[in-house]
Amino acid sequence: MGDSLLDNADLNAALSQLRNEIDDVDTALVNLLKRRASITQRVGELKRQHAMPVYVPEREKQLILARREQAEDEGVNPDLVEDLLRRIFRESYQSQHVNFAKVESDIQHVVVIGGKGALGRVFVKLLDSTGYTVSIVEKNDWDDIDSVVSTADMIIVAVPINKTVDIIENLPSLPKNCILADVTSIKDKPLKAMLDKHSGPVVGLHPMFGPDAPGMIRQVVVVCHGRHQETYVPFLEQMKLWGATLFESSAQNHDRAMSIIQVMRHFSSFVYGLHLHAEDPDLKELIAFSSPIYRLELAMVGRLFAQAPELYADIIFQDASNIVLLQNFADRFNNAIRLLESNDKASFVEEFKQVSAWFGDYAMQCLLDSKQMLLKADDSHLLRGGS
Amino acid sequence: MGDSLLDNADLNAALSQLRNEIDDVDTALVNLLKRRASITQRVGELKRQHAMPVYVPEREKQLILARREQAEDEGVNPDLVEDLLRRIFRESYQSQHVNFAKVESDIQHVVVIGGKGALGRVFVKLLDSTGYTVSIVEKNDWDDIDSVVSTADMIIVAVPINKTVDIIENLPSLPKNCILADVTSIKDKPLKAMLDKHSGPVVGLHPMFGPDAPGMIRQVVVVCHGRHQETYVPFLEQMKLWGATLFESSAQNHDRAMSIIQVMRHFSSFVYGLHLHAEDPDLKELIAFSSPIYRLELAMVGRLFAQAPELYADIIFQDASNIVLLQNFADRFNNAIRLLESNDKASFVEEFKQVSAWFGDYAMQCLLDSKQMLLKADDSHLLRGGS
Question: Between chains, do A267 and B336 touch, taking CB under 8 Å as contact?
């Protein structure tokens, strides 16, 4: 190489000089983040005072586009800039959602049954910080349920899936115009139970929260209409102001989609876990041998078993139609095994192609998205099995 | 609220003033990134000249720790700072890995069979940019194979899994000290074939590359030793200099782990795809109904079907022991279905707990890692099904 080599002392001096320069840049970066946070705080405050939504996708797009163009001009990778900005956006949403404007309506006193549960807590926090009067009812408070609901403008049932219908059926009779809502991950049975129980306004909600979601910002909430929509529209508007994206559906469609997604995936992850346990490979070695994509696949199974078995038992066992669905799944599994036993590669490829056609463009999108995700995971040394 | 409200004109003025301040901050951010890149370029150049590794985990840790502390002091979220730094690190690795120092050895002329394939290309690029003489052999070049290998110091077989053993068996006899290596995702059969074929140095390699991996930096490469280790140690050192982490294993252990991870996951994703296709739900609705975690699960299935069926057929059908493994999987699946049919929740919970115990702490780590991943995916609007 035509490069002039430095002796060790000079090399170390040169390197530490450059490292100091890097430290200066990174220090300036943290200072910038601090400055940016103080500005977005003021934006958030103004928006709250004037009942403006915190999350404005259009503004996000503009910000990113402008910085991407600047990056292009200055020879910086625009994707790097976009990734950093999006991470910074998340931060500012999380800091801004402490205060929200209250939508004008007759809804003032909201009772959250199960308000100390994971999901109930989110609603309590948002309602409370938005200026609603919130009462939490947990098991121990049930004796007072009559007096609590007597002044309620809205009741939100946020209890575990296997208790939802019971709780609804055992509610005392509610004020005529009180809104009765549930937030369970199934909708058909709870909605029917609520319509039977209460002659006033009824709505079924399913907040599709991401993990550690910053409140409701950017989260999808499925709305299954029950009765007297006009009465609870303000609450739907309130959820939009909290940042939610509403998606209307019939309870039946919702539940079928849920059993296909949730139940199928939980069950096959469960069986895969059983299988690993029975084969008993060295987990550490298994992880060491896994490329990021397989560590992710393994993590999707592993994560199931860090959670409460009862929760998954309830989801899987709660509906007989799930059993039929899973029996079909088992049949297809056994048929696929026969392809292997008869060494029928051709049919495997043929069936593979049919499924590819069914997925259409979405398959490629999944491939690209998952690649991006894995790069991000790799940045943070996630899914490295502690290695 | 006790806040004084502004009229529209003043509000818009105030907001656009704050937005200009945000734009200034973001502009400064891009400038910082440009400055940082120019510094790390110089670091990379110095390191190349003096044969120093580009990826130094310790230095990474120090940088992050120092900035986290600064963030704490200034009321900025340290996790935000760490996430941004790690993304910036990836960028500088990708820009730095254009030039690497060459490890001293007798290896000069390297023949990459299948050098135009996805994996072969990575080796060709790295070898070439490091100063090795690289010859690529593809199908059409096979007539010249004798003359090409006659001067080879090393041969890397980088062809599809189902052709590897054939190619090895059909190689002409190699120079006595020529290193014969393969990079297939199975190791036992190729290693045996190479040892039979060649009496000189032999090594089996499996680079566990992540998608779009920046060269070999931070990637795991499994090494299955064959013969005359001392001869190819310099090449192992070269891969370390390229940033790889080496993991030694026997070919049998490697292959068993691979069939448990790759084959099982591919096959169950394949069956799940068959099942979705047969149930034929509205995919758009399915995605809309999915919380981020289910979109990820769906994406892990969908991505399979964006790829070549033959590839997966080869991986799954290549080894009869896979069939046994999958038959066991099917048996466990059918047993689990029986739990459902007999509505035996108690046994479901019991078996669930046994698997949780088997996973141990790793289950919780999977849960936490996947949550972090989903937050990052959410930042980038990944896995949103185009919504």
Answer: yes
Residue A354 corresponds to which tokens in the numbers above? Answer: 């049919």
Q: A170 and A293: one domain? A: no
Indicate if B114 and B236 belong to the same structural domain: yes
- Please give, rounded to a whole number of angstroms, the shortest distance from the CA of A361 to a CA of chain B: 8
Task: Provide the domain count of chain A.
Answer: 3
Assess B106–A contact: CB distance below 8 Å, yes or no.
no
Pairing of strands A202-208, A133-137: unpaired
Q: Out of A21, A280, A307, whose CB is closest to B367? A: A307
Q: Does B309 touch chain A (CB under 8 A)?
A: yes
* pLDDT confidence tier of residue B383, bands split at 50, 70 and 90: low
- Predicted confidence band of residue A358 (pLDDT cuts 50, 70, 90): very high
CB contact under 8 A, B303 and A367: yes
Contact A303 B367 (CB under 8 A): yes
- pLDDT score recorded for residue A170: 96
Q: What backbone phi and psi angles, to 5 degrees, belong to B269?
A: -65, -40
Are the Cβ atoms of A289 and B211 closer than 8 angstroms? no
B18 Cβ under 8 Å from any chain A Cβ: yes
Question: Crossing angle, helix B78-96 and helix A78-96, to 10 degrees?
Answer: 170
What's the pLDDT at A383?
61
- What confidence score (pLDDT) does residue A386 get? 41
**Interface membership of A64 toward B (CB under 8 Å):** no
Residue A261 contacts B where some CB pair is shorter than 8 Å: yes
Q: What are phi and psi of B320, to 5 degrees?
A: -60, -30
Which of A123, A345, A358 is closest to A238 using CA atoms?
A: A123
> Could you tell me if residue B337 is inside a domain?
yes
In this predicted complex, what is the ipTM? 0.78
Pairwise CA distance, residues A85 & A82, whole Å? 5
Residue B58 CB burial class (10 angstroms; 0-12, 13-18, ≥19)? exposed
For A283, the closest chain B residue by CA position comes to B359
> Is any Cβ of chain B less than 8 angstroms from the Cβ of A17?
no
The SS3 of residue B126 is: helix
Residues of B in contact with A336 (CB under 8 A): 267, 270-271, 274
Q: Clarify whether residues B272 and B213 are in a common domain.
A: no
Please say whether the beta carbons of B292 and B374 come within 8 A. Answer: yes
DSSP A317-359: HS-HHHHHHHHHHHHHHHHHHHHHHTT-HHHHHHHHHHHHHHH
Q: Do B244 and B337 lie in a common domain?
A: no
Residue of chain A minimizing CA distance to B83 = A380
Contacting A residues, span 129-148, partner chain B, CB-CB under 8 Å = none
pTM of the model: 0.78
Segment (H or E) for A246 = strand A245-248
| Shortest alpha-carbon distance between residue A145 and chain B (Å) | 31
Q: Which residues of B touch A91 (CB under 8 A)?
A: 77, 80
Of A184, A219, A249, which residue is a domain's last? A249
Angle in degrees, 0-180, between the axes of helices B292-302 and A361-379, rounded to the nearest 10: 110
Put simply, the answer to whether A91 touches B71 (Cβ < 8 Å) is: no
Distances (CA, A) of A16 to A12, A19, A374, B47, B60: 6, 5, 32, 12, 14
pLDDT tens digits for range A29-85: 999 999 999 999 899 888 888 878 777 788 889 999 999 999 999 999 999 999 999
Identify whether the C-beta of residue B194 lies closer than 8 Å to the C-beta of residue B182.
Answer: yes
With cut-offs at 50, 70 and 90, classify the pLDDT of residue B91: confident
